[in-house]
Specification:
Blueprint: H1 3-15, H2 21-28, H3 30-41, E1 45-48, E2 58-62, H4 64-67, H5 69-85, H6 97-112, E3 120-121, E4 129-130, H7 138-159, E5 160-162, H8 165-188, H9 195-217, E6 220-222
Antiparallel strand pairs: 1-2, 3-4, 5-6
């Protein structure tokens, strides 16, 4: 799953408005950001096999350190601890920020579960691997991802209000671009040249998306509730 993860990040803004959407986007893709680095370093392995599934050519040969349920819990706890302890998050002490960031990080595994083949391990070694295989159905894959993102956007827009034109249109435009790019790349089935090339591209893409989300979110303010 790709853009659907951002739907969770958008919705989480309602629970803790003080959190930057950029940080929430980063938490939602924290596991995949690590994965790109691990693939590039040769710690985890993916092979590109065109035609493997309708919506994805990726054969995840080995990725227990990022995409096992056990390590997903570990990464969620780590993100919780970092937000709780790092000086950069000092202004958020006493809020739900650390818990929300940890939960959003953990949500990544559960959102990946429907789309992956049974290749997501529960732990290490010969651990059971799970996945419902929705990537075998392109239309269903696109529909699920778009619905998750738009659902999160709807919650975000109800929980915040714009402060200027950037705030009024920015996040909606970003989501529209994400939907368009995701749909085109999924339908076109143009595979990347290699797993490592995909990892490098993905790493910088995640950082750019998080940066735009953070910038646009500065022009949204929380709606006060009675």
């Amino acid at each position: 799953m790709f853009i659907g993860h951002y739907g969770v990040a958008l919705a989480a803004k309602k629970i803790e408005p003080k959190l930057s959407l950029g940080w929430l986007f980063a938490a939602s893709q924290f596991v995949d950001i690590l994965w790109t680095m691990f693939v590039f370093a040769g710690i985890e392995h993916v092979e590109i096999e065109p035609g493997l599934m309708e919506a994805s050519p990726m054969n995840f040969v080995s990725y227990p350190y990022t995409h096992s349920l056990l390590m997903s819990v570990v990464w969620g706890v780590l993100v919780y601890a970092l937000v709780y302890a790092l000086p950069i998050f000092k202004a958020l002490r006493g809020t739900k920020a650390a818990l929300i960031m940890g939960a959003v990080t953990l949500s990544h595994w559960f959102l990946d579960l429907p789309v992956h083949r049974p290749d997501m391990p529960l732990a290490f070694g010969d651990s059971t691997k799970v996945g419902f295989g929705l990537w075998n159905n392109m239309a269903a894959t696109i529909a699920l991802e778009v619905l998750l993102l738009l659902g999160g956007l709807w919650i975000y827009r109800r929980a915040t209000k714009p402060d200027g034109k950037r705030g009024k249109y920015g996040i909606s435009i970003l989501c529209a671009v994400l939907i368009a790019v995701f749909t085109m790349t999924t339908v076109s089935q143009q595979p990347p040249p290699s797993g490592k090339a995909m990892a490098v591209t993905g790493f910088f893409m995640y950082l750019i998306i998080c940066g735009f989300a953070a910038w646009l979110d500065t022009r949204r303010v929380a709606v006060k509730t009675e």
